[in-house]
Design brief:
Layout: E1 26-27, E2 42-43, E3 84-90, E4 96-102, E5 105-110, E6 114-119, E7 122-128, E8 134-140, E9 143-148, E10 153-158, E11 166-172, H1 175-182, E12 188-192, E13 195-198, E14 206-211, E15 217-222, E16 226-231, E17 236-242, E18 248-253, E19 258-263, E20 267-276, E21 279-290, E22 295-300, E23 306-311, E24 315-322, E25 325-333, E26 339-345, E27 348-353, E28 357-364, E29 367-375, E30 381-388, E31 399-406, E32 410-417, H2 420-439
Parallel strand pairs: 1-7
Antiparallel strand pairs: 2-3, 3-32, 4-5, 5-6, 6-7, 8-9, 9-10, 10-11, 12-13, 14-15, 15-16, 16-17, 18-19, 19-20, 20-21, 22-23, 23-24, 24-25, 26-27, 27-28, 28-29, 30-31, 31-32
């Protein structure tokens, strides 16, 4: 078993992680699942390697400080909170396609059909589905929902007697609901030419999952172009909507009953939840974006005030709420290749890309400043998850633990601070101005390196 080396540039003591040696997992099994293959896993440490080493963004003006060596801000460089690697989790059994973090546990899904559970940078346990690459994971209380390439949503539950044991609790839709629906011909809809299926079932890969803010509803979106709404109290599919003209790549629930979907057809749509008695329905509220390139990822900040959209052209558009509608706020330009995943935490936005890097942005109003470029993966960054680092967040320095999963078969764990921008803001702006001057572009009127204009977007090649 080969470990991926990493750098500890955070300078933060983390006694809770203890020894970083690998451990054998405790595997739970059910009568429906296959035998789980036993392999060693590893978490490795190499303090000699810098987190930015080998990054395609190394020569970016964000990372070049030589023009500003005489800046009065450089005296604070030693005191700046460092954004860097804490650890690297490796189990070479498949590309990492999905992540979900809850308290001290991290769930990872791959194309090996396995779901691994990590605790304190060591493998804690694992469980396995019968089939279907694990494209999405979401946690709600003691239940874990996984979306798969085979079009199924599987439900798992943590054993109350042994937290390392995860048992299969069923699927969505349930077998009983499938049986009841199959009796009525009206429950069958055309999914492909000359092919029909029950409307409560996805007919293609489940690409993404999201929970409503009140945790009452689960949203699942699929390459079958539909969005399905599940009521968690009784595990029933209460609605299926044909939301796009091509595969749906991302769904995220916002505040005030809004749900956002992004598709390979190049559009981002906002759907509004409307409740009338016991009936819940979603209607199209606004089309935020129409473009030629595919929409690959969505994220909403914690307040629900800002929506972010990543695309295959490497750009991240964002919208702000105001007067009941969302207006375009600008574009974040930090990647040379497709943006594959997004995550928002506090005032930070993280963007993972096929260029193998993660950009960390801080939002201040409409202005987004790139604080750092996290490099270390050897393949595209496919998924992100963020948890608050309560142990390290002191004296006004809000810190986050960021998990990144990659097609290089590894998960990396980063420590990220919101404070760095406060100390280095002037030097960063100077770098931004130099970058725009060298590129022959005008500096944005709002003072942001990334936010470009507020005009409505048109389709672009």
């Amino acid at each position: 078993m080969r470990g991926t080396m990493f750098a500890d540039t955070s300078g933060i003591a983390r006694p809770k992680y203890g020894n970083l040696a690998h451990s054998d997992p405790n595997i739970s099994a059910t009568s429906n699942d296959e035998d789980f293959p036993m392999r060693n896993s590893s978490a490795s440490f190499d303090p000699s390697r810098m987190s930015g080493e080998g990054s395609p963004m190394t020569m970016s003006p964000w990372n070049q400080v030589s023009p500003f060596t005489k800046s009065p801000w450089t005296q604070f460089e030693e005191q700046l909170p460092k954004n860097g690697l804490i650890g690297s989790l490796v189990r070479e059994e498949g590309h990492i396609y999905s992540l979900a973090a809850s308290a001290d546990l991290l769930y990872t899904g791959s194309d090996s059909k396995n779901i691994r559970v990590w605790k304190n940078l060591k493998e804690f346990t694992g469980f396995k589905s019968n089939s279907g690459l694990v494209k999405a994971i979401i946690i709600s209380g003691e239940k874990i929902f996984t979306g798969h390439q085979d079009g199924k949503i599987r439900v798992w539950k943590v054993s109350p007697k042994n937290p390392s044991v995860h048992k299969r609790a069923g699927t969505l839709p349930t077998l009983m609901d499938i049986f009841k629906s199959s009796i009525k011909p009206s429950n069958y809809v055309e999914v492909r030419r000359r092919r029909t299926a029950l409307w409560i079932k996805h007919s293609d890969a489940v690409s993404c999952l999201s929970l409503s803010r009140d945790k009452a509803l689960l949203y699942s979106a699929s390459w079958d172009r539909t969005l399905k709404v599940w009521r968690l109290s009784d595990s029933k599919c209460i609605e299926s909507i044909n939301v796009h003209d091509d595969a749906v790549n991302s769904v995220v629930a916002g505040s005030d009953g809004l749900v956002f979907t992004g598709s390979a057809d190049g559009t981002v749509k906002a759907w509004r939840r409307e409740v009338s008695g016991k009936v819940t329905r979603h209607s199209l509220a606004q089309t935020l974006l129409e473009q030629e390139c595919a929409v690959t990822a969505l994220a909403v900040n914690s307040s629900g005030a800002v929506v972010y959209c990543g695309s295959s052209d490497g750009l991240v558009n964002f919208w702000e709420r105001g007067d009941g509608m969302l207006s375009h706020g600008g574009v974040l330009r930090g990647h040379k290749m497709a943006v594959l995943c997004l995550a928002a935490a506090g005032s930070l936005v993280l963007t993972g890309s096929a260029d193998k890097t993660i950009c960390v942005w801080r939002r201040d109003g409409v202005i987004h400043t790139c604080l750092s470029v996290l490099a270390g993966h050897n393949g595209p960054v496919k998924c992100l998850a963020v948890e608050e680092d309560r142990e390290a967040s002191v004296n006004g320095d809000q810190r986050w633990v960021v998990y990144s999963g990659s097609l290089d078969k590894s998960v990396k764990v980063w420590s990220v601070s919101e404070l760095a921008a406060e100390l280095n803001q002037t030097a960063m702006k100077q770098q931004q101005q130099q970058h725009f001057a060298s590129d022959g572009d005008s500096f944005p009127s709002d003072g942001s390196f990334s936010s470009v204009g507020r005009s409505s977007l048109k389709r672009r090649n």
